[in-house]
């Protein structure tokens, strides 16, 4: 019976404190989106249509969530999730000149994307490859990443962000 308790404590310790790698693969090719978690294809489980993206107020909840994340100060959080990410973007437009101009603009986004990810994650590996195709119109995007998560950090981040949100709520006046 004591061995069972020791195993349960070790399992609890492992789940709470040791980082667990979460493998994500997102691929868009030939008009098809594929989302994989580890090797499990979860694309069929994600059903998004226009009615599910709108709440009763008529606003898109995804954009509301992104706006909420942008308003939070992630500099207050000392612990961040480690991340390894590879992004491969293969594109082509009908005109070689437009493709070249777009390549220059997309190349300058590498640093911007890195800095945005650095606010939330501790980046261990980051690789963004942009491949232009000057002859064929094509759009392919593949994002593969590993996020190392553990339950203690999730709880810590939730508490810090909720405290920050409570402290920085704007005061509403009831005067008419």
- Outline: extended
Give me the count of strands: 6
* Main sheet strand line-up: 3-2-1-6-4-5
Helix tally?
Answer: 4
SSE topology string: HEEEHEHEEH
Report the structural category: alpha+beta
Percentage of β-strand residues: 25-35%
The average pLDDT value, as a whole number, equals 79
Q: How many angstroms does the end-to-end distance come to?
A: 68 Å
Radius of gyration: 21 Å
Helix share, percent: 25-40%
Unreliable residue stretches = 50-56
- Characterize the largest beta sheet: strand count, sense, and whether it forms a barrel: 6 strands, mixed
Pfam family, one: DUF2953
Protein name: DUF2953 domain-containing protein
InterPro entries: DUF2953
Keywords: Membrane, Transmembrane, Transmembrane helix
3D architecture notes:
- Keywords: Membrane, Transmembrane, Transmembrane helix.
- It holds the Pfam family DUF2953.
- This is DUF2953 domain-containing protein.
- By secondary structure, the protein is of the alpha+beta class.
- It has 4 helices and 6 strands; from the N terminus they run αβββαβαββα.
- The chain has a domain of 112 residues.
- The chain is 39% helix and 31% strand.
- The protein has a 6-stranded mixed β-sheet.
- Strand 1 and strand 2 form a beta hairpin.
- The longest helix has 25 residues.
- The chain starts with a helix and ends in a 9-residue tail after the last helix.
- 1% of the residues are buried.
């Amino acid at each position: 019976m004591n061995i069972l308790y020791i195993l349960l404590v070790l399992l609890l310790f492992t789940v709470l404190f040791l980082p667990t790698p979460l493998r994500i693969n997102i691929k868009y090719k030939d008009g098809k989106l594929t989302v994989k978690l580890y090797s499990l294809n979860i694309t069929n489980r994600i059903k998004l249509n226009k009615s599910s993206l709108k709440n009763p107020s008529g606003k898109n909840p995804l954009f509301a969530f992104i706006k909420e994340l942008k308003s939070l100060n992630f500099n207050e959080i000392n612990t961040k999730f480690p991340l390894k990410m590879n992004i491969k973007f293969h594109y082509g437009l009908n005109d070689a000149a437009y493709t070249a101009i777009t390549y220059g603009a997309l190349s300058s986004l590498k640093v911007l994307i890195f800095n945005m990810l650095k606010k939330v994650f501790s980046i261990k590996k980051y690789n963004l490859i942009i491949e232009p195709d000057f002859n064929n119109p094509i759009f392919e995007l593949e994002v593969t990443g590993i996020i190392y998560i553990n339950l203690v950090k999730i709880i810590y981040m939730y508490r810090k962000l909720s405290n920050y949100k409570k402290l920085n709520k704007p005061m509403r006046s009831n005067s008419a």
